[in-house]
Amino acid sequence: MLTLRLFILQRVTALIMAPLVVGHLALMIYAIRGGLSTGAILARTQGSWPWALFYGTFVVAVSVHAAIGLRVIVGEALKFRGALLDVLSLAFCAFLLIAGLRAVLSVTML
Question: Can you tell me the distance from the alpha carbon of 16 to that of 106, in angstroms, rounded to the nearest whole number?
Answer without folding.
Answer: 23
